[in-house]
C-alpha cells in the first residue's frame, strides 16, 4: 500500500504547479475531488459513509464503462483545501487507506482553476473597464 500511496502522490506537485502557472489563485480554497470507483455499489456506499466520518463529503455515484469495457460506478470524495502539496498528499494517504480497506479503486485527484474571484456573478467584478 505504501507504494500505491507514493505513486498517487507523485503528481501532486506537478498538478499544483500547472494550476499556478496557468494563473490560478495561490491563496484560494480549492474543491479537491478524490476519485473512487468499483463495480460494487455496496462497497462504495460504505466508503462514502466512512469518508463522511473523516470529515469529507461525497458526490452522487455515476455509472460508466472503463477502458476495458467493464461496468463501473464512481464518485468523488471531496474537501475544500488550499493548494498545499503536503495537505493534499495527507488526504491521498488517508483516502487510499480507506479505499483499500473496502477493496475499491482510488483513481487520483483533481480540482478546478480558481481566478481569485469569490463570486462569478458579482456585477462590479464583471464590469468591463474601458
TrEMBL record:
One of its GO terms (molecular function) is endoribonuclease inhibitor activity. It is found in: Cytoplasm. Residues 11-111 form the Regulator of ribonuclease activity B domain. SUPFAM superfamilies: Hypothetical protein VC0424. Interacts with the C-terminal region of Rne. Belongs to the RraB family. Globally modulates RNA abundance by binding to RNase E (Rne) and regulating its endonucleolytic activity. Can modulate Rne action in a substrate-dependent manner by altering the composition of the degradosome. This is Regulator of ribonuclease activity B. It comes from Gilliamella apicola. The lineage of its organism: Bacteria, Pseudomonadati, Pseudomonadota, Gammaproteobacteria, Orbales.
Amino acid at each position: 500500500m505504501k507504494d500505491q500511496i507514493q505513486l498517487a502522490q507523485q503528481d501532486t506537485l506537478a498538478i499544483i504547479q500547472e494550476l499556478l502557472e496557468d494563473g490560478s489563485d495561490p491563496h484560494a480554497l480549492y474543491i479537491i475531488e478524490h476519485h473512487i470507483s468499483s463495480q460494487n455499489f455496496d462497497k462504495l456506499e460504505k466508503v462514502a459513509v466512512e469518508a463522511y466520518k473523516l470529515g469529507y463529503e461525497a458526490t452522487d455515484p455515476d455509472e460508466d464503462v472503463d477502458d476495458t469495457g467493464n461496468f463501473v460506478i464512481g464518485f468523488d470524495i471531496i474537501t475544500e483545501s488550499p493548494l498545499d502539496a503536503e495537505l493534499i498528499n495527507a488526504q491521498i494517504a488517508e483516502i487510499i487507506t480507506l479505499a483499500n480497506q473496502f477493496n475499491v479503486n482510488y483513481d487520483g485527484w483533481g480540482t478546478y482553476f480558481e481566478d481569485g474571484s469569490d463570486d462569478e456573478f458579482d456585477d462590479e467584478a464583471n464590469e468591463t473597464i474601458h
